[in-house]
Amino acid sequence: MVRPVGEILFYMLQLIYECKEVLTAAVAVKQYYVHMVGSVVTSDGGDGFVLDIEAYEDDLQNMLEVSLN
Question: At 3, is the secondary structure helix, strand, or coil?
C-alpha cells in the first residue's frame, strides 16, 4: 500500500518532534547528573565519574538506535 505524501510527511515530522523531546530530556538528565555528581566527586574519584557519563551516552545512543530502527 502506498501512502500519500502528506501522511508520510506527518509521520516524519512527528518522529522528528519525538526525537527532539528525547534529546532535550537526555541533555537535561545529563546536566542534572553532572551537577549533582560533580559537586561530590573529589579528585580521587574522577575517573569513575567520566566512565559513568560515557556509559550514559552509550546507553542513550543505543536507545535512540533501537527506537529509530
Answer: coil
